[in-house]
Design brief:
Helix content is 34%, strand content 23%. With 946 residues, the protein is of the alpha+beta class. Strands 10, 11, 12, 13, 14, 15 and 26 form a seven-stranded mixed beta sheet that branches. Strands 16, 17, 20, 21, 22, 23 and 25 form a seven-stranded mixed beta sheet that branches. It has a four-stranded parallel beta sheet with strand order 2-1-34-35, covered by helices on one side. The chain is flat and about 110 Å long. The protein starts with 5 loop residues before the first helix and ends with a strand. The structure holds one RNA strand of 87 nucleotides.
Length: 946
RNA sequence: GCCUCGGUGGCGGAACUGGUAGACGCGUCGGACUCAAAAUCCGAUUGUAGCAAUACAGUGUGGGUUCAAGUCCCACCCGAGGCACCA
């Protein structure tokens, strides 16, 4: 037996596959269904790393399997060759980005061939090739002509280090996604794409795709849809209306002030009416100086300035309320102005506390569920805390119940008056200072004594005692009967006590009242309307619509998603195919003149002035207007590389087409993509952009489906042996070329498959021992060839078919690791046999072929087969072989395993019961006890209940 | 803070619709072969107690449902990711 020489074997077959065009895909294959398996194409960064292997070689296992399963599989490959990463790397080395990119691609192609993956290289797509970007430009112009692209002044994200504008998605918590520099705001005229017009569909259509929950949620969060209403507040004495967006129109009666963002136009428009305009302007200037990070970072301390001389009018009750300017309100979200409800919004409460603005509760928490209310009672209760932190509680000895001091409000009394009267009567403490209202709870209960339903509106006030002076206690008869006493109790004592009391609801109400004070909670949920005129008693959810209707507001939706800025002030990108004419405005370059080729230039370095390096190239810039023929200038910005990658998967379907970006008939053959795998970092960038692109093109009748990817899966990360992310500076980088050389591509593929489930996002440290174990496994298969002879056992048949069952499911579900385990388990059985048949070995290498294609092919040939194992039919499981002759019967007593008995399969329940009861161990445990019940799970388990 | 997904031996991870927890691999320990080592092969390996048969405990924590819970329900703790002064 020759030794297993991975190097020779792998090179030999890679050459053969390539020469025979084994993996080239036709658009139609007789009798086969098409299957499109896609991975994210690579940036030509220079060198293949383990991450590339994980990204390209794992889906290859699935592609190979699907091919054997009888599908016509498209598994294409290409390069995302334009853009910042390549350009920055080239600049760093002082080489031209074009040369750098093309050299890198050559090198990477070579490395990728060493994976032994079944890529169809004949369909390769390179985005910086004019034959490709001609269509990127053309597609952009289709969007432009459809009103989905516009050159407009924007508050752009400028990266001072990359010297270009970035899209919102490329700013990660205020920093440039590529270089981590702090992003600045610049007013610039930029090309934007109208992705926001598709916000709803981008969210709603997620229901129809088979994507993992987390990816869907990330996209939803990013789009940030929030449903609410726009309401108008008149400015007193002015012909001016302040429009606000709110998700809580039900709290309109609780509005005690308003806030506008520093950028808000009201400051300009009504500046003559604002006596303190100087202070206001200073504040606006101050907040303009703050960077985005500063402004969103100091979330605790809120600042603002009152707009003196201006009063807004609450449309619900015509009350006049003050207006502030404060930077906790953002200019670019909603309407840039809010109605502030300190009782029901945390931020508003913080601001109100600082500037001493009244708080008005208009929604109460509700306890109890009762259909109709017979009578209503309003109560006023005190949260009274002494300097030891204990609370004053009324305790009824008779019914063992706790409650706050206070009581029912009588006719003509205010809440405060009632509270004072009741507390003095019940507790005798008389020197107290009325505090702030802290909360309101509506408690609906059924009174068994009165046989009526009752609503208790319980108001709670935080009250402090100025002295411990007590006067005579005047209890009511009921209170006397209940043996009421006052007690000082800690929060924990109260919490423990009410858990034991019979009336749980009453305890809950008290804790709610108390919690609001103790935990300083702001009640921002749904409840029952109070203090809201005709809406009192209504459920707040219902009141939303009713109040919007009453004040003539409008139900609206806002989004966090912003339009996609696609201009980049950089050289290495596809030129934006637009000509600016003084008379005609921005004009699309006529189709016949596409592509607008990226010229070769001497100076490709980016500038600080916000203009692309192409702007210096007069030959490029100066053209005549395609409309009127006058002198005009080309757009000199280039496209965001995400434009190029938003449609590359369409080009794979028809890569050589010179008439169009892709023929509709060919697109229909392949789209939508059956499975797409890639990195989690693209969830709210490429994945969102390409979904938008597909939808827009679908609406223009250019593509056959409105979603590009039926299934999507984010891949895990392979870490260095030390558990950290691989990086040159940490010195923990594993070079795949080394592994291929020392252990072979098949070992690498199997190792990566074995390391953990491919369909879950996690991170796996590189384990140098473990990969040797995998290599050992291949060598054991290799040696198994020696055992191929005439004889073979049924045990081998069974082991192989059991594995086949697992391997098939494993690949279908992208849990590639369990398939490798199953194969390992099989050879543990086969190795113990004296001899196995050629059929056994054939089945084994057929299953191995998707995982380790080289060695599988070599053995395939070695045992006397012609052609390619990659082209054979995936075997069917012989179900009869999965049936065991004997089973291991688990005998439980009361759910605990007490015995395991090997019995003949296929016996009926009664027979199994008999066997179980005959067991000595079982008898020992049962003893004298009576058997209450016996549960039999067919072919598996018996549970005897005693 | 809100949303989503997770938490299983020393490690990576198995466990179908509730039915033997820890498959498979790594590591560790013991043994065989060898003058010795590497490689290879064989055996053991969740913890505690015990010479052992065995018993008890055990899937983040605490409750619950069930004949039976890693799996289902409730509450909480921890981790990862997304959003975040977003009204």
């Amino acid at each position: 037996m020759e030794r297993y020489e991975h190097g020779e074997i792998e090179k030999k077959w890679q050459k053969q596959w390539s020469e025979d065009g084994v993996y080239e895909t036709q658009d139609i294959a007789q009798g086969k269904e098409n299957f499109y398996q896609l991975f994210e194409f690579a940036y030509p960064s220079g060198n293949l790393h383990i991450g590339h292997w994980y990204a390209f070689a794992m889906p290859d296992i699935v592609a190979r399997y699907k091919r054997m399963k009888g599908y016509n599989v498209l598994y294409p490959v290409g390069f995302d060759a334009f853009g910042l990463p390549a350009e920055n790397a080239a600049i760093k080395r002082g080489v031209n980005p074009r040369d750098w990119t093309y050299e890198n691609m050559d090198h990477m192609r070579m490395q990728m061939r060493s994976m032994g993956a079944s890529f169809d290289w004949s369909r390769e797509v390179v985005t910086c090739d004019p034959a490709y970007y001609k269509w990127t430009q053309w597609l952009f112009l289709q969007l432009y002509k459809a009103g989905l692209a516009e050159h407009r002044g924007v508050d752009a994200n400028w990266c001072p280090s990359c010297k270009t504008v970035l899209a919102n998605e490329q700013v990660v918590s205020g920093l440039c996604e590529r270089c981590d520099s702090a992003v600045e705001k610049r007013q610039m005229k930029q090309w934007q794409i109208g992705i926001t017009q598709y916000a709803d569909r981008l969210i709603d259509d997620l229901d129809d795709v088979q994507w993992p929950q987390d990816i869907k949620m990330s996209q939803k969060n990013w789009i940030g849809r929030s449903e609410g209403a726009e309401l108008e507040f008149k400015i007193s004495g002015e012909d001016y209306k302040l429009k606000v967006f709110t998700t809580r129109p039900d709290t309109l009666y609780g509005v005690t002030y308003m806030v506008v963002a520093p950028e808000h136009e009201i400051i300009q428009n009504l500046e003559k009416k604002i006596p303190n305009i100087k202070a206001v302007r200073d504040y606006v200037a101050e907040s303009a100086k703050k960077s985005e990070i500063d402004r969103t970072n100091d979330t605790k301390e809120k600042t603002g300035v009152l707009l003196e001389g201006i009063k807004a009018i609450n449309p619900a009750n015509d009350e006049e309320i003050p207006v502030y300017v404060a930077d906790y309100v953002l200019g670019n979200y909603g309407t840039g102005a809010i109605m502030a409800v300190p009782a029901h919004d945390e931020r508003d409460q913080a601001f109100a506390l600082k500037y001493d603005i009244p708080v008005r509760h208009v929604v109460a928490k509700k306890v109890g569920e009762i259909a109709s209310i017979d009578l209503e009672k309003v109560g006023s209760y005190g949260i009274i805390q002494n300097n030891e932190g204990k609370f004053l509680i009324q305790y009824s000895k008779r019914v063992d119940e706790y409650w706050l001091p206070g009581g029912t409000v009588e006719d003509g009394e205010s809440l405060e008056q009632a509270l004072e009267r009741e507390v003095v009567e019940e507790t005798g403490f008389s020197d107290f200072v009325n505090g702030n209202k802290v909360s309101v709870v509506v408690w609906d209960q059924y009174s068994h004594t009165k046989k009526k339903t009752r609503r208790n509106v319980c108001h709670a006030f935080a009250v402090s005692l100025s002295s411990k002076k007590r006067v005579e206690i005047k209890m009511t008869q009921v209170e006397k009967d209940d043996e009421m006493v006052s007690k000082w109790m800690t929060y924990d004592e109260i919490d423990a006590a009410i858990k034991k009391q019979v009336n749980k609801e009453k305890g809950e109400v008290m804790m709610l009242l108390l919690d609001t004070y103790v935990k300083r909670e702001v009640f921002a949920k749904d409840g029952v309307m109070i203090n809201s005129g005709e809406f009192d008693g209504m459920e707040s959810e219902e009141a939303k619509k009713a109040i919007v209707e009453k004040v003539g507001g409008e139900i609206t939706t806002t989004y966090k998603l912003r339009d996609w800025t696609v201009s980049r002030q950089r050289y290495w990108g596809a030129p934006i195919p637009i000509i600016h004419c003084d008379d005609c405005g921005p004009i699309a370059v006529p189709d016949a003149q596409l592509p607008v080729e990226l010229p070769d230039v001497e100076d490709y370095l980016p500038n600080d002035d916000g203009r692309s390096p192409l702007a210096k190239n007069e030959d490029f810039v100066n053209v005549s207007c395609p409309e009127c023929g006058k002198d005009a200038q080309r757009e000199t910005d280039t496209f965001d590389t995400f434009m190029c990658s938003s449609w590359y998967f369409l080009r794979y379907c028809d890569p050589d087409n010179v008439e169009s970006f892709a023929d509709m008939e060919k697109l229909k053959m392949w789209m939508p993509i059956d499975h797409y795998s890639g990195g989690a970092e693209h969830t709210t960038m490429h994945l969102l952009y390409s979904r938008f692109f597909t939808k827009a093109l679908y609406d223009l009748g250019l593509v056959p489906s409105s979603e590009p990817y039926t299934r999507r899966m984010n891949r895990s990360l392979i870490l260095g042996p030390d558990g950290n992310k691989m990086s040159k500076s940490k010195g923990n980088v594993i070079d795949p070329d080394d592994i291929v050389e020392k252990l072979g591509a098949d070992t690498m593929r199997l190792y990566l498959a074995f390391v953990g489930p491919y369909n879950e996002v996690s991170s796996y440290p590189w384990n140098p021992q473990s990969i040797i174990g995998v290599r050992r496994f291949i060598e054991r298969i290799w040696k198994l060839q020696e055992k191929v002879g005439d004889g073979g056992t049924k045990a081998s048949d069974q082991a192989l078919h059991k594995a086949l069952d697992t391997v098939t499911a494993s690949i279908e579900n992208y849990k590639l690791n369990t398939g490798v385990s199953a194969l390992m388990g099989t050879i543990n059985v086969l190795e113990k046999e004296v001899s196995i048949t050629k059929e056994h070995m054939t089945l084994l290498v057929t299953m191995l072929a998707p995982y380790a294609p080289h060695v599988a092919q070599e053995i395939w040939e070695g045992i006397g087969h012609d052609g390619y194992v990659a082209k054979v039919q995936w075997p069917e499981v012989d179900a009869t072989l999965l049936v065991e002759d004997e089973i291991l019967l688990i005998v439980q007593i009361g759910g605990k395993v007490r015995d395991k008995v090997t019995v003949a399969a296929g016996q009926d329940d009664a027979a199994l019961e008999k066997i179980a009861l005959a067991s000595e161990k079982v008898q020992k445990f049962i003893g004298e006890k009576e058997i209450r019940k016996i549960i039999v799970i067919k072919g598996k388990l018996i549970n005897i209940v005693i």
